[in-house]
Write a structure and sequence with these properties.
Distance between the termini: 72 Å
Helix content: over 70%
Strand content: under 5%
Length: 105
């Protein structure tokens, strides 16, 4: 019991203030213990930023694909080019040679 009293008396007076103790406990609670603590908030903000970037990327890809689709629907030359590139279609009097590049692993 003597040691406890000695320890309590060795604590500086401002640290014994009930408002200071309450503030410290509140800060500890809000930073580390709460479900919506600052650490989780930071992680969630980073996740939202990442998802926003992905959203912008996919919106731009949708616009590109929409213009390609519009060209394919309305332009016969584009249809022929697409069919030749993607499905390896050819005319009757043509030969197709496929050249593949092998990359070193």
């Amino acid at each position: 019991m003597e040691k406890i009293k000695k320890f309590i008396n060795s604590i500086p007076e401002p640290l014994k203030n009930k408002y200071f103790i309450t503030l410290v406990l509140f800060l500890i609670w809000s930073v580390f213990l709460d479900d919506y603590n600052l650490i989780n908030q930071k992680k969630l903000k980073n996740k939202v930023d990442e998802l926003s970037k992905q959203r912008e990327f996919y919106i731009s890809e949708i616009q590109k694909d929409s213009t390609k689709l519009q060209n394919l629907k309305n332009n016969p030359q584009e249809q022929e080019k697409f069919a030749r590139e993607k499905f390896l279609m050819k005319k009757d009097n043509e030969d197709i040679f496929i050249i593949r590049k092998y990359e070193d692993e």
